[in-house]
Every structure is written in C-alpha cells, then in structure tokens.
Design goal:
This protein is α+β, with helices and mostly antiparallel strands. The chain has one domain. Helices cover 30% and strands 31% of the residues. Helix 1 (30-41) crosses helix 2 (43-61). The protein is globular, with a radius of gyration of 15 Å.
C-alpha cells in the first residue's frame, strides 16, 4: 500500500470530527471522490447519506454504534442496516444503492474516518466488483490507522477532539 494522509474532512459538526484519507499526490480525498462520483448518478441517495453523516451523526447523536451496525472486518458500511431509532430520529435505508465505508476510532462517538465506497449491485458486497475493491482499500486504510494508534504514532487529543502525530503535528502521513 502506498502512502496516504489522514486529514480532517469536517470538524465543524457539534459531536464528531470526521477524517478522511488522501493518497499521496491525489487531488481529492477518498470521501470527496465518492461524493463527486455519485452526486449526479445517485443524487438522492448521495444526499441522504451526506445528511445522515453531517446532520444525524455529526450534529445530533454522535457516532453511536447503531449507525455503524454493518461491520465488515475492521470497517463499517454506511448507511446502517435495518430500521434504526435513536430518540426522535428514525431511519430505514431499505435497498439503499450506496455504501460508504467508515471507521469509528477506538469505538469512540466523536472521531470517525470516512473512506470511499461504491454502488451495491448485488446482494453481497463481495459480488459487487467496484464496491468490493473499495471495501478492501477501506479495510487496509483502517488497519494501518488502528495500528498507528496502537503503536503511539497517532494520538488522540481529547481537548480538541482530534488526531495528532506523536509529535503534536496535524499532518499525519502513513
């Protein structure tokens, strides 16, 4: 796996700081590639997913396990499966065409890394060629990030709800 940067995608929501990854030298992050790709062909689904991320997870409830109930190895697919209800929030993403992969850092409710994803074209993700490739990438990114946290290369800054390099730098390249 080549080098990539772990960077802030959105840190302006009330409850969660969202990170993403960007391949070294790439113009767009993996999450931005996902939304750019599907903003026209799957516009409504992309907007619903973005609303779930920013509004429901980011501003209203945090990264609760209920939102990440579609685990696949070390990462989870968004949106959540089945009907979910959290307080007044209700959602049912039945037959949702898109999957976006994400990682809750240390199962915390305030730090999430968003990766890429794709169009789910068959019952099992592994049978959707493009989606399966994005899952494999997301899982590899997630493994490297979790390993860097375990080894102390990346630390959690509780005061700023952020991730830092061991030396305090915001620039995290793995």
């Amino acid at each position: 796996m080549s080098r990539f940067e772990l960077e802030i995608w959105d840190n302006e929501t009330e409850k969660v700081t969202f990170y993403t990854v960007r391949w070294e030298g790439a113009p767009l992050s993996e999450t931005d590639k996902f939304f750019a790709k599907y903003k026209e062909t799957e516009k409504q689904a992309a907007q619903e997913l973005l609303s779930l991320i920013i509004k429901a997870i980011g501003n209203e409830h945090g990264a609760l396990p209920e939102f990440f109930n579609r685990p696949e190895n070390g990462v989870a697919g968004l949106p959540p499966k089945g009907k979910i209800r959290i307080g007044e929030f209700k959602a049912h993403f039945q037959q949702f065409p898109l999957r976006l992969y994400a990682l809750r850092i240390n199962d915390r409710e305030d730090l999430v890394v968003l990766f890429n994803g794709g169009l789910k074209t068959s019952e099992a993700n592994r049978d959707s060629p493009e989606l399966n490739l994005k899952f494999i990438e997301a899982d590899a990114f997630g493994s490297r990030i979790e390993q860097a946290i375990r080894e102390g290369m990346i630390v959690i800054d509780e005061s700023s709800r952020s991730l830092k390099l061991f030396d305090g730098s915001d620039e995290i390249i793995l």
